[in-house]
Amino acid sequence: MASNPILDDFNKIKQACKELSGKKVLVGMVGGDGSDILKIAHAHEYGDGKMPERSFIRASFDANADELGKIVSTEINKVLSKKTTPSAAANSIGAQASQIVQNFIDTNRVKPQSDFSKKTQHTTLYETGTHIRDRITFKVVNKE
């Protein structure tokens, strides 16, 4: 029995969609459980008893929802047109989403509240000390 090229293409696209739908892109911080950098990042993202919430991950995604949607659509279209693989598309989405968070931090730096703060405190997300901005990364995992 001869193979049907249209059916073969359909099955390849179907398999690519299945593979892509089984992936999840995680964007966030690099650090081990309980690390100081994760504690500081968590305090900024969600606030704590001493510091108000200064979200940088959720806020960047909220502020750039349209851009993120375009990135995902572009990568899915590349998979459907067989210009890239599902794994490469997921990695591209993760890399671009990480860059969006870093750009958000660059353009929305936390401002010190007083002249005293300006002399004694730095923006924890960016300047010397924690380098939270530089630790934003991504990981592609299989959905469970």
Task: Explain what this protein looks like in three dimensions.
The longest helix has 22 residues, at 86-107. Strands 1-2 form a two-stranded antiparallel ribbon. The protein is mostly helical and 144 residues long. Mean pLDDT is 84; it is low at 117-124. The chain contains six helices and two strands, in the order αβαααααβ. The radius of gyration is 20 Å and the shape is elongated.
Provide keyphrases for this structure.
144 residues, mainly alpha
Write down the secondary-structure element order: HEHHHHHE
Provide the residue-averaged pLDDT: 84
Range of strand content:
5-15%
Helical percentage: 40-55%
Please state the structural category: mainly alpha
Count of separate DSSP helical elements: 6
Whole-number radius of gyration?
A: 20 Å
Poorly predicted residue ranges = 117-124
How many β strands by DSSP? Answer: 2
**Separation of the first and last Cα atoms:** 38 Å
Summarize the helices and strands and which ones pair or pack:
Elements: H1 5-21, E1 23-29, H2 36-46, H3 58-63, H4 65-80, H5 86-107, H6 115-120, E2 136-142
Antiparallel strand pairs: 1-2
Helix pairs in contact: 1-5, 4-5
